[in-house]
Amino acid sequence: MQSRRNIILGAAAAALAPNAFAQTGDLHFLVVGDWGQASEPQRQVAGAMAQVAGQGGARFVISTGDNFYPRGVGSVSDPQFRDAFEEVYAAPSLQAPWYVVLGNHDYEGSPNAEIAYSSRSPRWRMPARYWAEGMSAGGQSATFYFLDTTPISRLTNAAAHVPLLGAAGEAREQLRWFEERLAADRSDWKIVVGHHPILSSGNHGESPGVVEHIKPLLERYGVQAYFNGHEHDLEHLTEQGVDYICSGSGALSRQIDAVPQSQFAYADVGFASCVLGADVLTLRFHDASAAVIYETQIARA
Questions:
Q1: Is residue 1 assigned to a domain?
Q2: How far apart are CA 88 and CA 83, in angstroms?
């Protein structure tokens, strides 16, 4: 039996970017975060991702941020793009679009360089610091919202790593955009991706600014799931009809201490795989050997 540190089990249960996945059929995708080190643990997870992607036909990968450690990238020509991304995730099954959001460590370098890299890599997708993608899942409409949570986290978080010039204004502009889009969104599925956690059993805990400003919008407008990184673990939590899914152990892991909302938490490296269908989102967590360590289904309604 694994120790409590390693695994906690509960009841398993900007403008629009081009619409790359308008066809019908279930959406198979992977989610990984906090990975950019070119380390051996990252390579192990990448190998497991390649195996799962090859078996399930993953259509895309979502990165939940902190893409390059410890201080992001310096320019669009930074060798870390090659060393920690292209050469690590080189398997044929991972040559799919990667939808990438920014993390706090990415802000210690040049976020704009990560955006600009979209024009150099056929699979790196970051058209702006935040944006939305319309897709189809099992014949139902789905909207994925990719947020830049670092400025939002600093609206109330005085302990942030790096001061951001004009961060409060940027955050409020993004929040206005997000709420206006959600209010008008009639999609069957609404999935949100950000770096910072809203609920967490991890080392950082909840991000107060994101909790204050994002959580009420998820609940008000019927968002089914919020994916995040920042915590170096795998976790599934639920509250007020929203499922919170952390996939932030693409290269690093930290100790966990379960909160009441936690359904599952795992303090080791790994990633998530998902199948989004007409009525159900199937979530699986995988360890570095690709083994399924948790599986549950999240209903649309």
A1: no
A2: 7
Name the residue type at position 287.
D
pTM of the entire predicted model:
0.89
Contacts (Cβ under 8 Å, ≥6 apart) of 110? 72, 73, 74, 75
DSSP assigned state of 173: H
DSSP codes joined into one string, 35-85: --S--HHHHHHHHHHHHHHHHHT--EEEE-S--STTT--SSTT-THIIIII
Let me know: does 169 contact 204? Beta carbons within 8 Å: no
Q: What is the pLDDT of residues 89-146, one digit of tens each?
A: 999 999 999 999 999 999 999 999 999 999 999 999 999 999 999 999 999 999 999 9
Please give the Cα distance from 84 to 40 (Å, whole number). 11
Cα distances (angstroms) measured from residue 232 to each of 47, 172, 266, 267, 298: 18, 28, 9, 7, 23
Is the pLDDT at 292 greater than 60? The verdict is: yes
Give the confidence band of 168 by pLDDT, cuts at 50, 70, 90. confident
CB atoms within 10 A of CB 221: 16
In a domain, 110, yes or no: yes
CB 198 within 8 A of CB 245: no
Q: Which domain holds residue 173?
A: 7-299
| Number of independent structural domains in the chain | 1
Residue 233: give its domain's CATH number.
3.60.21.10
The residue written with tokens 């600014």 in the block is 209
For 64, 98, 227, the CA distances from 33, given in Å and listed in that order, are 5, 12, 10
Q: What is the DSSP string of 217-260?
A: HHHHTT--EEEE-SSSSEEEEEETTEEEEEE--SS--------T
